Structures are given as structure tokens and as C-alpha cells.
Amino acid sequence: MHELAVTCSIVRHVVRAARGRTVRAITLEIGQLCGVRPEGVAFCFPEIARGTSAAAARLDIRRIAGRGYCESCHSEVPIAERTAPCPCGSSRVHTVAGEELTLKSIAFEYIP
Ligand SMILES: [Zn+2]
Question: Which domains does the chain have, with CATH numbers?
Fold first, then answer.
């Protein structure tokens, strides 16, 4: 399961960045076209974070819609998959959004 490996990698990264601090919240941006299902990450997260400094963290996942730019009609169109054609019929569409998988922010517990 792809999401399992991705979630492992995210938790590892977050825990390393926390350097022993408790992690309060994690914000991820997952593009519709990046091949990782947000539900899968949300499902795996509690199990993978268990026993780490991120165990109690709130996981916020923002979904980024797929968008493409059509070189035939010069417009930006929503696309549900990378190879989707433009509504004008052209397949000369290149992706401009939705391929990202970004660890946007990590909030740590405040230690005075
Ligand atoms: Zn077009």
C-alpha cells in the first residue's frame, strides 16, 4: 500500500524535525493527481505515529484539485487525471496543479 510508505516517511520527517518536542498538528497538502489517497494517509497515521512524539498530533489534510493548462484553447481547466483531455477536445494539456504532496506545516508544543 503506497499510502503506508508515504505516511511512514511523513512521520519520520516530522519526528526528526520535532527533536523531542511533542507535535500538536501536522498540515499536509495532497494533490488529486499525485497518486496518494488522503483517506489512506489519514487511516495509516494513528498507527504509524503511535509511540512517537507525533502520536497526539492532529493531522490536517488539504486536498489540492487537479488543474491543467490547455495549449490549444489557452485556458486552465479542472482535470481529474494527468492524461485527461481538455473539454475543447485537445489532449495538449499539461498539469499546473494537483501533483504536489507537501508537508506544509508542523506545530510543536510550546515549551517556555
Ligand atoms: Zn482546450
Answer: 2-65+98-108 (3.30.2320.50)
